[in-house]
Amino acid sequence: MITLHNRVALITGAGRGLGAEYARELARRGAAVVVHDNGADTMGNWADPGPAHDVAAEITAAGQRAIACTSDASTSDGGRSAVAQAIDTFGRLDIVVANAGTIYGAPLVETPTDKFEMHCAITCWPHSTLRDPHCRS
Amino acid sequence: MLGLMNVAALEGAEFGVQANAVMPMGDTRMAAAILGDAAQTPEARAFLETLRLDQVSPVVAYLASERCKLNRTVLSAFKGRVAALQAGVTRGWIAPDGAPTAEEVEMNLARILDPDDILVPASIFDEMNYAADAF
Description:
Chain A is α/β, with parallel strands linked by helices. In chain A, 41% of the residues lie in helices and 12% in strands.
């Protein structure tokens, strides 16, 4: 059996949908999970700490390890704080599932520049994770 | 995303980082957002409901595990089918005079695009060696 004992996973966009399912599956196999989601809608608007906390609570209620992180994945600071939270809470970070994304729901030429930039920032988020000095040791 | 995955794997190697990607489909808010109003028809609903999330998450669990030796690999996963996306380079066509004209490129597209004996390169050096065989 494939196990993830003693491993720590950070999953972005883990408050709902596929990301939440990844979090449950990795936790079920023994990983400690940082459920990262700022709770925005599919276009990246607003924020709601509820989904991340709900998934983390569901995992811990099942006897596995999880915490919620609701920082903004589209910013370097948000990425750094998620990494810091993983290391502060669980002592290490082994797995990043960069699942978070946005869908504006319009052709590219009709998508506002700020929405396009946010989409790029969220989907390219591993960049700031890999640059984190914690991840190089 | 593929370029970022490649760079993360190549530059992360010295730190023991492997980087892979998954192309999932599932019955999610995102899938509904892509389909827009069309997602609300009974046919679309019935189709989306066949895309279960627990048909994708095991693929991610495998990629996240130490048993996974894959690197820079893209797995497509939905409805219980797992497949690999591969970007390859063809044997290609070589300009007889060393430099092709635009017209020659157009004229030789069939050979340029011929997927027979395609190579999926691990790095640019792989591709250079592969192309060197053709000269």
